[in-house]
């Protein structure tokens, strides 16, 4: 084995959805590290549309029922597919950063996850993993890579009746990303390192991940 994985908190993921897993996006190991550890729970996620240019990758991601997404635009088709999957009681994993960090440090989140959460009424569950960014270096040294996975508390987005402006969406996604930051060692918090990661203006914690939120 090339990786040693510490993932004692994955039992917090329920067997069914609707649920939005919110995760950080480190490198190519994200999928092979996480998916086998949540299978056979009905989890799928988004993948950049260019993935389907590779026939082998297209075959694998079709089996996983992944949703192709255009990352540089508001992809309404992808959003509708995601809403349908959540409506079926499945789980969708979302990486709000939109692209790999490579170094494991958090990048700014994008607001698509806010739209998905508000329109679906599904709860969100933060999950982080770190250590995998050292994989290539360790392989060259014939060392095993230690990877840590941690799961946070489930929560809903609460608009408090406010109109959802761009500013409100940005604040919501920052609070979502801070739920990832609080699970990470300080050196991995990236752009959120200097922020108040305790901010919860638009968050409402749940007792468990099976409670549906009030959409909107």
* Rg, Å, rounded: 17 Å
Helix percentage: 25-40%
Topology as a string of helices (H) and strands (E):
EEHEHEHEHEHEEHE
How many separate helices?
6
The coarse overall form would be globular
Mean pLDDT: 90
Specify the biggest β-sheet: 7 strands, mixed
Strand content: 15-25%
Distance from first to last alpha carbon: 45 Å
Low-confidence stretches: none
Strand order of the largest sheet: 1-7-6-2-5-3-4
Number of strands: 9
Overall number of domains:
1
Structural class: alpha/beta
Offer a concise description of the structure.
It is built from 6 helices and 9 strands, in the order ββαβαβαβαβαββαβ.
Question: Can you characterise this structure?
Answer:
It is globular, with a radius of gyration of 17 Å. The chain has one domain. With 216 residues, it is of the alpha/beta class.
Which key features would you list for this structure?
9 strands; two-stranded antiparallel ribbon; 6 helices; 216 residues; alpha/beta; seven-stranded mixed β-sheet
């Amino acid at each position: 084995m090339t990786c040693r994985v510490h993932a004692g908190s994955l039992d917090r993921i329920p067997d069914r959805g609707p649920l939005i897993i919110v995760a950080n996006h480190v490198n190519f190991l994200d999928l092979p590290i996480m998916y086998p550890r949540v299978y056979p729970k009905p989890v799928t996620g988004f993948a950049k549309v260019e993935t389907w240019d590779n026939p082998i990758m297209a075959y694998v991601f079709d089996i996983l029922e992944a949703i192709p997404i255009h990352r540089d635009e508001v992809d309404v088709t992808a959003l509708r597919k995601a809403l349908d999957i959540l409506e079926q009681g499945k789980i969708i994993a979302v990486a709000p950063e939109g692209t790999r960090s490579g170094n494991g440090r958090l990048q700014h989140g994008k607001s698509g996850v806010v739209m998905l959460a508000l329109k679906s009424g599904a709860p969100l569950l933060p999950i982080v993993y770190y250590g995998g960014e050292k994989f290539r270096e360790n392989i060259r040294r014939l060392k095993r890579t230690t990877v840590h996975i941690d799961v946070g508390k489930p929560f809903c987005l609460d608009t408090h009746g406010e109109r959802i402006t761009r500013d409100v969406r940005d604040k919501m996604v920052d609070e979502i990303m801070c739920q990832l930051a609080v699970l990470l060692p300080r050196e991995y918090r990236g752009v959120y390192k200097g922020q108040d990661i305790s901010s919860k203006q638009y968050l409402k914690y749940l007792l468990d991940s099976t409670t549906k939120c009030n959409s909107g």
